[in-house]
Amino acid sequence: MAIQPVLIAGAWRPANDSATFQAANPATAQPLPEVFAVSRWEDCEAALEAAAAAAAVLRHAPPERLAAMLDRLAQRIESRGEELVETAHAETGLPKKPRLADVELPRTTDQLRQAAAAARDGSWAMATIDTRLNIRSCYRPLGPVCVFGPNNFPFAFNSVAGGDFAAAIAAGNPVIAKANTSHPATTRILAQEAHQAALESDLPPATVQLLYRTSHADGRRLVADPRGGATAYTGSRAAGLELKAAADAAGRPIYLELSSINPVVVLPGALAERSDKIAEEFTTSCLLGTGQFCTNPGLVVLLAGAKTDEFVEAVAARFRAAPAGTLLSAGVARNLSASVAQLADAGAQILVGGRPETTGGYRFANTLLKVAGEKFLAAPEKLQTEAFGNVSLFVVARDAAEVARVLDNLEGNLTGCVYSDTRGSDDGLYGTIAEHLRGRVGRLLNDKMPTGVAVSPAMNHGGPYPATGHPGFTAVGIPASLRRFAMLACYDNVRPHRLPPLLADRNPTGRAWRLIDGAWAQANVGG
């Protein structure tokens, strides 16, 4: 059976493979026909060499070429949209419509075009000019970026064409993409189109390279290699921390999105005002995509009382009635079973579900658990185990002080939300607890579930550890996401003709915002 080639140094070629693998259709648990290589270090070495050479060229490439590539890639993806949707559906079990065709694919092309606009504009580089001392600085490309994509977003977070990829290219870096082994065929199609878009835009052939899989040891070696500029990783905490240890030991930047349970606090006034509406919103959010979102609401904090009891039962009834969706892989199903068992062992009561489904494919019953606040505080680490799937834990606290203690014992998360009475009866309580939540999350929401992540310049898709590896960066939100893959370069008394265009007296785009002598301006220096 033919083994799919890897993309290295501008050519699709046989891998230096030590093993092979096949993705499986999650809906049937049956292997898909295509066979992919587990590359040996020789492939990584060749990709690093080619990427380093490409980086030397891209460092001086006109931003318009980078933008043209991203725009062209968006067009090429749209031209193969139907094929991409079919392939991703077979590999992930995610619905063709609306999820893949109407939501995720347009989001992917939109963020590519937003990254293109940022590259053309140049403001992302934060050019700063001090004319009195003749010191100038801006962000410039860092070098080859390794992107490890997750299993749950085959387009929008794909290692080729996803948000990390778009940001790295827009900042002027080549990308070595490591496909997620759940959807290698989808990634191959995207890499074909990205490679062609780079060639059509007169960028180096090694601007985009693709490996499907490596050993864990070679993955650690790849992220630590001095020829690399940075790594972006989205996935499990265990694997991410292995890569982080290797990158940190070598002093190489790595940006991680790991685990998050996204706490939701529902205050008493909100339940008195609209309990059924909140129950419906929560159920929809928690079970959307079978709960396989990094922003899935995996923990809900409530204050004890009759209304809370009614709310819990209303949610439990909805969980019982809703069909269990398809999980992304056998590994996801195994880990979900293990996580639910750990929550139960730590003292959580299973109200609904708690077991694998026996029907075909990878499925787990919709699961709701409950624990008293005092029990949570007795084992907060175990009761924060991320159950990646259609599972959530309700924590019922005795009073506001116990709510605050629960929040104080949370690890870092991507999001946190507070539902309160729209008429103001919860305002005092909100003021008491909001600060306890604020420092634990990257994005604070009011009165809406956290599942959606808008591609907005103001978005923060990041947060304190272990949600991410660093609280100061975002994986979603252009232009901020670009700066992860750039270094701050300072020019002190450098002659005008030797400066990067963005730091010249003349604004090269006419649109870039630059900080000139303490004031943001789009004008030329002295203009």
Describe it for me?
The protein has 527 residues and is α/β, with parallel strands linked by helices. It folds into 2 domains: 38-120 and 139-258 and 474-482, Aldehyde Dehydrogenase, Chain A, domain 1 (3-Layer(aba) Sandwich), CATH 3.40.605.10; 263-446, Aldehyde Dehydrogenase, Chain A, domain 2 (3-Layer(aba) Sandwich). The protein has 14 helices and 23 strands. The strands form 6 sheets. Strands 16-17-18-15-14-19-20 form a 7-stranded mixed β-sheet, sandwiched between helices. α9 (268-287) links the parallel β14 and β15. α4 (96-121) packs parallel to α5 (163-170) and α7 (216-224) crosses α8. The chain is globular. The termini are far apart.
CATH topology grouping of the largest domain: Aldehyde Dehydrogenase, Chain A, domain 1
Going by CATH, the architecture of the largest domain would be: 3-Layer(aba) Sandwich
Q: Could you name the CATH homologous superfamily of the largest domain?
A: Aldehyde Dehydrogenase, Chain A, domain 1
Give the rounded overall mean pLDDT. 96
First-residue to last-residue Cα separation: 66 Å
Main sheet: strands, sense, barrel? 7 strands, mixed
